[in-house]
Amino acid sequence: MSKPFSIIIVPDTQIMAKSHPAHFTRMTRWIATHADELNLKMVLHLGDVVNNGAAEENQYRLAQDALNEIDQAGIPLMLVPGNHDYDNMVGSDRSLTLYNRYFGLHRYKGKPWFGGVYEPGQAENSYATLEVEGTKYLFLGLEFGPRDEVLEWADSILRKHSDHLAIVFTHCYMYTDGGRNTLESKHNPKIYKGAHGANDGEDLWNKLISKHANIIGVYSGHQIPKNLSYRVDWGDHGNMVFQSFQNWQSAFEGGEGRFRVLTIDPDAKQIHLRVFHPGKEEYEDKPGSELTIPLGTPEDRTNIWFHEDM
Questions:
Q1: Which residue in 9, 15, 68, 308 has a CA-CA distance of 20 to 30 Å to 74?
Q2: How far from the centroid of its chain's Cα atoms is residue 62's Cα?
Q3: 3-state class of 48 per DSSP?
Q4: Are 32 and 65 in contact (CB under 8 A)?
Q5: Three-class DSSP category at 200
Q6: Is the distance from CB of 205 to CB of 154 less than 8 angstroms?
């Protein structure tokens, strides 16, 4: 009998880092304190850790202090950069000096679960592997608007770990309406002058996600002002891929630390998703905040469904 375990998804913390650091620390402290009861195996941050790039280094210090609660508890934590984390917020180029100073490769040194990065010395594209309850998992983090060369690297990592169930996370992929980000979507990465060679959500699906039978989920933030949307599609190999957007930065005080809890039950072959509000110490019951999806591909594939949070 296999024991259920959890993965936590943390979206855009930028407003908390800028103006409400107490919410940030309350969130990470709750995660660290409740890790055992959740059987927590991984925390994934979807980017926009801070709000003002290199212009306000103190935001990085506050974010580091908060996220250290998770590191010090010995819980694996991976991050990807959002557009606000880049030094010039992708206004002129993709420089990530402060991001790598505070959340660079030094954080992963000596971690047995850490796999590697695309570019030496740069942490914005990375992967990790874990074996949980006899099943191998791959966690693949990609930069904002990943370039073609990054997708080629990601493709090689997914092929190398084809025997792992894979979760991909990046800052911008899904849109608020249950679709993937396209040129018709607001805040598409291709509109940022410094995001040279950017691919959007629809590009990622066509060039990478749909090609790999082991991908079970894709998670992203970035979009505003809505909070949740998700969809299910089937990849080229008939595998079911759950794709999810979550972001509360536009909510009161930057979302007050809300995050997503994924509980994987290997025996029931299900993933249960909930939204937790650490300030209220409760799981939310708003539309779309709680759902259960199959871990694997159901026999009936006619129900391609999506949800947008109004």
A1: 15
A2: 20
A3: coil
A4: no
A5: coil
A6: no
Residue with tokens 């992929």: 173
- How far is residue 172 from each of residues 213, 215, 234, measured CA to CA in Å? 22, 17, 20
Q: Where are the domains of the chain?
A: 5-308
Angle made by CA atoms 65, 68, 74, in degrees to the nearest 5: 170
Residue with tokens 């957007």: 245
What kind and span of H or E run contains 140?
strand 135-142
pLDDT tens for each residue of 139-152: 999 999 999 999 99
Given this model, what pLDDT does residue 307 score? 60
Task: Give the separation between CA 29 and CA 73, rounded to whole angstroms.
Answer: 9
Kindly report the CATH class assigned to 5-308: alpha beta
pLDDT digits (tens, 9 = 90+) for 163-221: 999 999 999 999 999 999 999 999 999 999 999 999 999 999 999 999 999 999 999 99
Q: Which residues pair with 180 in a beta bridge?
A: 174
Q: Is the four-CA dihedral 287, 66, 249, 253 of positive or negative sign?
A: positive
Residues whose CB is less than 8 angstroms from the CB of residue 181 and which lie 6 or more positions away in sequence, other chains included? 172, 173, 174, 175, 187, 188, 189, 200, 201, 202, 223
Query: 116: which 2 tokens?
Result: 């590697």
Place of tokens 């699906």: 205
Q: Is the Cα torsion angle 70, 217, 168, 160 positive or negative in sign?
A: positive
Gap between the Cα atoms of 212 and 230, Å rounded: 19
- Taking residue 288's Cβ as centre, other Cβ atoms within 10 Å add up to 20
Burial (0-12, 13-18, 19+ Cβ within 10 Å), 63: buried
